[in-house]
């Protein structure tokens, strides 16, 4: 039948050599396949670790964006409160020197800030 080997007593020396070649090739191929599987597993593990790191970093960045948006809303509210009492900052001339502490002593709208 095809694919089966003759009984050892009926093998010729050339058949024995071809069997040896066949099994040597099979061993070589099996080792190559194992190396390939191991390399693929290693690469998959590295990708999974990288993905987990990126997901964690993404979550941290989303939290940072949320905190910055909250701070922006708070700052806009403070500015709107100041401008409702003292007029727009855009219409006021810019000071020539940096403002000193207490530059707006008449303003009490900023006293309520946390």
Automatic annotation (TrEMBL):
Q: Where is the BZIP domain?
A: 19-82
Localization, per the record, is: Nucleus
Principal localisation: nucleus
Q: Entry's InterPro entries?
A: bZIP (IPR004827), bZIP_sf (IPR046347), PAR_bZIP (IPR040223)
Q: Which residues fall in a compositionally biased region of kind Polar residues?
A: 1-16, 85-94
Region of interest (Disordered), ranges:
1-20, 84-103
Q: Does the keyword Transferase apply?
A: no
Alphabetically sorted, this entry's keywords are: DNA-binding, Nucleus, Transcription, Transcription regulation
Q: One GO molecular-function annotation for this sequence?
A: DNA-binding transcription factor activity, RNA polymerase II-specific
Pfam families tied to this protein:
bZIP_2 (PF07716)
Which GO cellular component terms are attached? nucleus
Indicate whether Ribonucleoprotein appears among the record's keywords: no
Tell me the SUPFAM superfamilies matching this sequence: Leucine zipper domain (SSF57959)
Per the record, the similarity remark reads:
Belongs to the bZIP family. PAR subfamily.
What protein is this chain from?
Answer: BZIP domain-containing protein
Report the source organism. Kryptolebias marmoratus
């Amino acid at each position: 039948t095809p694919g089966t080997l003759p009984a050892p007593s009926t093998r010729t020396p050339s058949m024995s050599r071809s069997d040896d070649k066949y099994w040597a090739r099979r061993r070589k191929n099996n080792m190559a396949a194992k190396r390939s599987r191991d390399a693929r597993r290693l690469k998959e593990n590295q990708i999974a670790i990288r993905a987990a790191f990126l997901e964690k970093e993404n979550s941290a960045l989303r939290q940072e964006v949320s905190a910055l948006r909250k701070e922006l809303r708070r700052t806009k509210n403070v500015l709107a409160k100041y401008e409702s009492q003292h007029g727009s900052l855009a219409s006021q001339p810019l000071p020539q020197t940096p403002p000193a502490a207490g530059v707006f002593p008449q303003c009490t709208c900023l006293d309520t800030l946390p």
